[in-house]
Amino acid sequence: MQRTPAESALVWTARIGVLLVVFLTPFFVSSSMFFPYITGKNFFFRIIVELTFGVWVGLAIASARYRPKKGIILWAFAGFVAALSISTIVGANPYHSFWSNFERMEGLITLLHLLVLFLVASSVFQNEREWRLVFYTSMAASIFISIYGALERSGVVSPGGSVAGSAGAARIFATLGNPIYLAAYLLVHLFLLGFLLSRTNQIWIRASYAAVILFEFFVFTAAGTRGAFIGLIAGIGVLLLLVILLSKNRNIRLLGVGVIMVGALGLFGLFQLQGSDFVTSRPLLRRLTDVNIASSTVQSRFLIWGIAVQAFKERPFFGWGPDNFIIPYAKYYNPNLYGNEPWFDRAHNMLLEWLVAGGAVGFLLYLSIFVAAGMVLWRMFRANTFTSLGVGALLGLFIAYLVQNIFVFDNIVTYILTTLVLAFLHSVGSAATTAPLSYKPIDSRRLTVVPIALVCSILIAVALNARPMSVAAGIIESLNSTGQGTVTDFLTRYDAVLKQGTFGQTEARERLVDLAIQSAPTQDQQTFEQYYPLLVRSIDEAKQEIERTPDSLRHLITLGKLYQLQFAMTRDEGARDKSLATYQHAIEVAPHYPSTYIGLAETYLAAGDYAKAAGSIDGILKEIDRPNPLFFTAIMVSAIAGDYDMAMRQIDDFAAITKKTDGTKLALDRETMEDVTRRSLTSRNPEGREHFLLKVLEYLREDSKENPIVYMGLAETEVQLGKKAEAKIYAERAVAAAPEYKPQVDQFLKEAGIQ
């Protein structure tokens, strides 16, 4: 087929767009933008896809040869995106579902771009020979990424945020920003390389592919990601099983059986060596064999998955909408999760993520994409287009991808790769089942639509990306300028970011509020006068965010904290009442989220309402059935409030839970309980404090009965009660427990007038 020069130029322009996405996206790290490893990659991906889309639309209008071909993969993919579009419209937060945020850069808009990438790539790359250029380009990128990762592991290079070094003690992430993302990226390439290996009989080419596989596997292991490794094992298992079942060569089938047996024995032996130097000196092996169902990490993951199931039950058909998991996470929060990361905006399981986001409809259509891919692979095998090894490699790729996604969440680089592999199968599958169109040169008059389409795509790219990119850069610039000039100067600069009104506005507000909370002054009046405009502005921005998303627990808690700061600084009872009302609203939105009760207690403490402060947290403790740091917070609040009976009961409750869950006596955290001791001394009520501190001594672990901090707390308590003889006894015990405390004890006795 001989294309005209104009047609050929347009086709290659569209192809180059796809190749740029494949090759350059993994390398983009924009240090000038907020979330540099995420925003730069996604904006680049979106802009190139949008511009390429304009070229392709012109081609498709001009010639039927470049229009989408029918196929079950296309129907499944388009159906999934359509279902998620409905989920976005009827979901809990349509705006966020469509645009997402800088931290994730996903949402419906990313799915639409992936669908466009699928359509463009499957239309301009029309046979396996042309598709090899895509795969070779991606393979080249993966080699460079792997080289960078190897240099990172050896300490030669150090990407921002990396702590890897020559000892290999830390996990690497190269230019992807997260070891999970690097492992997932290389996981796809390992199977893609296996597919390419199956498509050649030349020994030196196969040897080259094998060498790249071994090198990238080495870097893959240095990422230390258990989920990806389990996915690799599952994918290889499927590959070998298909080779055993489908290969006509008896020797190859026997080889497959042998590899499975050796692999199974190797895994068994690996777990038998758990704790050995061989395993512990290798981060991935150590992490892989460190599987403890009772560990806090595993238990937390199960609890989060349980929240996802509850969310699905409430919205079973079309779900909550993309990127909205944080809403049911707060609503169905399990207090046993307290002490982990406070906000999970992902289910850390992509299957459950799509179940929550798209309901049963979206979830089934998501799975249908891979079922359709499997059907096309089977059809290609039956037609002798692909060998059993080739089919096994690509099916293993999809299985590995799905299995590793059970444990993590996805990202743009793996979205791109899987989309292109699906586009490849759709393209070659359609070509194998559809009669080729007779070639007709494109009428030059039809090509006049191409400039129009390209101009439209440029305008779309500018409209969709210019302001968000400006906001992403503006947040960094504004935050870096703190300390330069007055607060008024800073707020003036930040106004330029906040007033642009993009999806980045929420994160701009969150950073402003975080700054206000973190930089709150204590007693300095001059500092307070400089700080107060920042606090007032932060309150205003938080209120505007809540007006847009009234039931956003995260923003409600933040606003409650801001009002609490305002009350603490000004003693304005109106601010106190607003803080309490905001926290009460937050409890209505998410009745099981402990941080809300802690905020409520802090406001009550600031207002001097100690009884309500102690009671605020105590109620939520009844929902906890395993050792949890929330108990320490509750004990501290009760002690500060002077409710020592409640504090002692909370210690006993924690002791009972600890014994019930692991059969051991309570092991209170020494440093925390020493802090509790110090804070309890701020209570205006010393009555009952002696019994409380004696109970703290009783329950502190091992050498705790000789704890000088608690003894000094007891001594000070006795002084407040007028029992100087008892105070002297406790002070002397403090010195006996820790002789270095003698100068401090002597000073205490002197000030107390004790001989």
Walkthrough of the structure:
Keywords: Membrane, Transmembrane, Transmembrane helix. The chain has a domain at 70-435. Helix content is 72%, strand content 0%. It has helices at 5-24, 36-62, 72-90, 94-99, 107-124, 128-154, 179-198, 203-222, 226-246, 250-272, 277-280, 283-289, 296-314, 326-331, 350-382, 388-404, 412-433, 449-480, 487-498, 505-518, 525-548, 553-570, 573-589, 594-607, 610-621, 630-641, 644-662, 670-680, 689-699, 708-720, 724-737, 742-752. The termini are far apart. The model has no long low-confidence stretch (mean pLDDT 87).
Using the alpha-carbon principal axes, give the shape: globular
- Quickly count the helices: 32
Q: What structural class results from the helix and strand content?
A: mainly alpha
Helical residue percent? Answer: over 70%
Beta percentage is under 5%
